[in-house]
Specification:
The complex is a heterodimer. By secondary structure, chain A is α/β, with parallel strands linked by helices. Chain A has five helices and eight strands, in the order H-E-H-E-E-H-E-E-E-E-H-E-H. By secondary structure, chain B is of the alpha+beta class. Helices cover 50% and strands 14% of the residues of chain B. In chain B, the strands form four sheets. A three-stranded antiparallel sheet of chain B has the order 1-4-5. The longest helix of chain B has 30 residues. Chain B is globular, with a radius of gyration of 23 Å. Classes of the chains: A alpha/beta, B alpha+beta. The interface between A and B is large, with 53 and 56 residues.
Chain lengths: 216, 384
């Protein structure tokens, strides 16, 4: 084993980790409020390929329409992504499907950055058959903040959003049946949050339902 | 459900005969322990007589928290775990994972490694389809194909075993290439298999393609339109059987696939029979790819220069491959450390299973079995 392993639970306090795609020195003018402390940590990291601004008719159209609501439009390792304000995300997703032919929602997922002011990234990965192009749409949410469900746009988001809810506790407004999907209904806690340890479990649930003290 | 006592009292009052199934919706439970659900899948069926009014899947019985485990393992250590998701196509899982990390590290596997990867992945696709065919036919009531397909799948597993020592959870690839050079006689073994298997596929087709019972049980069963497939994110053979000519190997090529000549088989009706035909043709196309790869396999190193301690630069990547079941994607967020900050698996089985409801509505209970089989789900991947 060439590498040593970290402790099972991520340290609660540590150096602020710059979220991926945020450490971009190029786009300064559309900087959200919480950005400067993260940027300060970025130069310490080993130099890698940096995200470049993504220019395309689609981006200029959306920027013209929504202005600073489109916070970032970058391309990293050949993959394009948009960072949007949560208030307009659903509207833009609808536009992407209706006008820009992104008719296939590949995945909906989330990432937790506990140190950040808005700790959750919600990510949609979209694909267009006609353009043969992938696009990631990302938005940031605060703890307890909810976002409009994309099930009316792509029915496939139903289970995918349920999984995000199950694992992160992010609520999707207007979801037809938002409940846990992989974990049992009565489970407490959201396992993919960073403050949830790898061997942590819902002791009470395990005790009541399995009749044992620990599932370990 | 009506209380049986009211039913009896009605009879005593001399009202017109009412049967249990006349007006009642019946909720029944299929699984989680049911041989036709291919694992621990529970489907709650709402029935009117034999007709399905709606379904709900209850999943998660095999949930192992693969994504959480990934955050607590190094990139190298996590590699064997991906084999345990779609355990009948472990090689595909490994390919997707290794390529995603390679992209993040900005390295590329050497050409020889790419060819070895293609050969093994396509062999695995055939093995996966053979296993699917055997079990699917068994569910519908044809027992013979199971013995035929398992007999022939054995030859593929033997090649895997000789190559890397494992038959199912192979861990065949490493980040940056392959760990093992091909063994002496690898090409010979593969070529022998290529000659041996086409007549065997003909044999399966003889058993089923024009078999009256098979056709009755599969034609116009579990139909899904191309538009529904796209809306529900259904990929792989299910999407192609609905007439969409889309395969990631062609659309967004990876590994050495651009160098090979092959077709994307499609269907027209999007029913269970078409999906069967698509998978049968896919096996033949895979054979074509393997033959080209074995003939043209280049010499050279099999491992790129990879740092001992892998620390991909800060960033995120989504990479997907055409697994036997559909689009298998990995979304990896790196924070510059030795472990993924977040690793998301986009499992084809999970997303495809969501289409079960729309496919069985209005059909008979027996068709639910056929549709679960034709979706080709692996619960290890659905639940992760």
């Amino acid at each position: 084993m060439p590498e040593e392993t970290k402790s099972p639970t991520p340290p609660p306090s540590g150096e602020p980790k710059p979220p991926a795609g945020q450490a971009n020195p190029g786009s300064v003018q559309s900087t959200p409020v919480h950005k400067p402390p993260e940027k300060a940590a970025a130069p310490a990291k080993p130099a890698g390929p940096a995200p470049l601004p993504w220019q395309s008719p689609l981006v200029s159209k959306l920027k013209g329409q929504y202005g600073s609501g489109v916070r970032e439009a970058n391309t990293y390792l050949g993959q394009n992504y948009l960072v949007l304000d949560p208030s307009i995300t659903n509207e833009i997703l609808q536009i992407l499907r209706d006008d820009e032919q992104f008719e296939y929602c590949v995945d909906v997922t989330a990432v937790h950055y506990p140190q950040r002011e808005k700790p959750f990234d919600v990510i949609w990965i979209l694909y267009s058959f006609a353009r043969n192009e992938r696009l990631r749409v990302k938005t940031m949410l605060a703890e307890g903040e909810s976002i409009a469900s994309s099930v009316p746009i792509w029915p496939t988001a139903n289970w995918l959003e349920r999984e995000v809810f199950d694992m992160f506790g992010i609520k999707f407004d207007g979801h037809p049946d938002l409940k846990r999907i992989l974990l049992p209904d009565g489970w407490k806690g959201y396992p993919l949050r960073k403050d949830y340890g790898i061997i942590q479990q819902d002791q009470e649930w395990v005790h009541i339902n399995l009749g044992i003290d620990s599932g370990q | 459900m009506t209380d049986p006592t009211t039913y009896l009292s009605h009879l005593e009052l001399g009202e017109p005969d009412k049967t249990f199934l006349d007006s009642n919706e019946l909720i029944i439970n299929m699984g989680p322990q049911h041989p036709a659900t291919h694992g621990v899948l529970r489907v709650i069926l709402k029935l009117d007589g034999e007709k399905v009014l709606g379904t709900e899947c209850v999943i998660g019985y095999l949930h192992r928290g693969v994504e959480k485990i990934a955050e607590n393992r190094t990139y190298t250590m996590f590699n064997p775990y991906v084999d345990r998701m779609d355990y009948v196509a472990a090689v595909s899982n490994g390919l997707g994972y290794c390529e995603a990390v390679e992209k993040l590290l900005n390295i590329e596997a050497p050409p020889r490694a790419k060819y070895i990867r293609v050969i093994l992945t396509e062999l695995n696709r055939i093995a996966s389809h053979q296993l699917w065919l055997g079990t699917h036919a068994l569910d519908i009531g044809a027992m013979t194909p199971l013995f035929y397909t398992f007999r022939d799948r054995e030859e593929i597993l033997k090649i895997f075993e000789k190559y890397c020592g494992a038959r199912l959870t192979t861990h065949a690839f490493r980040i940056g290439g392959c760990q093992y050079e091909t063994y002496d006689g690898f090409e010979r073994d593969v070529e022998k298999f290529l000659d041996f298997v086409p007549p065997r596929i003909d044999e399966y087709e003889e058993l089923l393609t024009t078999n009256r019972i098979w056709v009755e049980r599969t034609k116009n069963v579990g139909k899904i339109s191309a538009a529904d497939c796209k809306a529900l994110g259904v990929t792989g053979p299910v999407l192609r059987a609905s007439g969409v000519k889309w395969d990631i190997r062609k659309a967004l090529p990876y590994a050495a696939y651009p160098e090979f000549d092959f077709e994307i088989p499609t269907g027209a009706n999007g029913d269970t029979y078409d999906r069967y035909m698509v998978r049968m043709q896919e096996m033949r196309q895979s054979l074509r790819i393997i033959r080209q790869a074995v003939e043209r396999i280049p010499e050279g190193p099999i491992m790129a220069k990879v740092p001992k301690v892998m620390k991909p630069p800060v960033g995120e990547i989504y990479h997907s491959i055409e697994a036997p079941k559909g689009e298998l994607g990995y979304f990896i967020v790196s924070d510059g450390s030795t472990q993924p900050y977040r690793l998301r698996v986009r499992p084809p089985s999970f997303v495809n299973l969501q289409a079960l409801d729309i496919m069985v509505r209005g059909q008979l209970v027996a068709d639910v079995i056929a549709v679960i089989g034709t979706l080709d789900i692996v619960l290890g991947e659905v639940d992760r």
